[in-house]
């Protein structure tokens, strides 16, 4: 008996990168592209994705954990990720549903590990515990100069009449964000089989096309699938 083409194997795709590079927008666009090709897919985010993980997200991004230091934040992110994997990611993959996540374990390694100075041994141990073997099949690292990214965020805020806000990490100095960018690129260079760097310094439609090219080339089962 032939297996339904969209059931197995399910793929796990993550998006990484600094603040304001357009991850959330491109996650939504990729979700649409996959859904239109009859792929069962869900999107999620980190920290978050489950009620417990969302509570931890709120605690961290409000700055309430900042005084505890980067090590404590890494532990909190790992706790959120453990629940996220167990309650959302693993069950969906097991039933054949693709999962796209806006951030995952590479963010902890880049933010708290390489940029925050947390010992690599702790980062590795927390990653092993939380992932339980659920390593992404593909990680798309969106790359953009931080100055350009923040100018885009400011322009969008003005155009949409929104109140300017900043979470725990957006308020860091520009030098911190430049180091963060370099650390994401280092992670990509050290994991070439999983990570693909895509320049985010292009318009949303062009970036969407570039990402779809990467995804469709990585997963042969997408080739030849027409829009529903």
CATH architecture: 3-Layer(aba) Sandwich
Biggest pleated sheet: 5 strands, parallel
Name the structural class. Answer: alpha/beta
Proportion of residues in β-strands: 5-15%
What is the CA–CA distance across the termini? 24 Å
According to CATH, what is the class? Answer: Alpha Beta
Give the tally of β-strands.
5
Taking all Cα atoms into account, the compactness measure Rg is 17 Å
The CATH topology is Rossmann fold
Number of helices: 8
Oligomer: single chain
Protein name: Thymidylate kinase
Domain Thymidylate kinase-like: 15-211
Catalytic activity: dTMP + ATP = dTDP + ADP
Keywords: ATP-binding, Kinase, Nucleotide biosynthesis, Nucleotide-binding, Transferase
Would you kindly provide a written description of the structure presented here, covering whatever features stand out?
It comes from Devosia chinhatensis. This is Thymidylate kinase. One of its GO terms (biological process) is dTTP biosynthetic process. This protein has 228 residues and is of the alpha/beta class. The chain has one domain: 3-Layer(aba) Sandwich (Rossmann fold). The protein has 8 helices and 5 strands, in the order E-H-E-H-H-E-H-H-E-H-H-E-H. The protein has a 5-stranded parallel β-sheet, sandwiched between helices. Helix 2 packs antiparallel against helix 3. The longest helix is centred in the middle third of the chain and has 25 residues.
């Amino acid at each position: 008996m032939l297996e339904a083409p969209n059931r197995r194997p399910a793929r796990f795709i993550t998006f990484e990168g600094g603040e304001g590079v357009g991850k959330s927008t491109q996650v939504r666009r990729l979700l649409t592209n996959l859904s239109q090709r009859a792929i069962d897919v869900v999107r999620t985010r980190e920290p978050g994705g489950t009620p417990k993980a969302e509570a931890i997200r709120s605690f961290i991004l409000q700055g309430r954990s900042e005084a505890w230091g980067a090590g404590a934040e890494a532990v909190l992110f790992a706790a959120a990720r453990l629940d996220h994997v167990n309650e959302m990611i693993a069950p969906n993959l097991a039933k054949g549903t693709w999962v796209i996540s806006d951030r995952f374990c590479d963010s902890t390694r880049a933010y708290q590990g390489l940029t925050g100075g947390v010992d690599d041994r702790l980062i590795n141990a927390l990653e092993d515990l939380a992932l339980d073997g659920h390593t992404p099949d593909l990680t798309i690292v969106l790359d953009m100069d931080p100055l350009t990214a923040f100018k885009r965020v400011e322009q969008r805020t003005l155009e949409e009449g929104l109140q300017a806000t900043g979470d725990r990490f957006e308020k860091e100095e520009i030098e911190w964000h430049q180091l963060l960018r370099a650390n994401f690129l280092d992670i990509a260079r050290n994991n070439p089989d999983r990570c693909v760097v895509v320049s985010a310094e292009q318009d949303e439609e062009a970036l969407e096309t570039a990402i779809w090219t990467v995804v469709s080339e990585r997963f042969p089962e997408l080739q030849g699938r027409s829009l529903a």
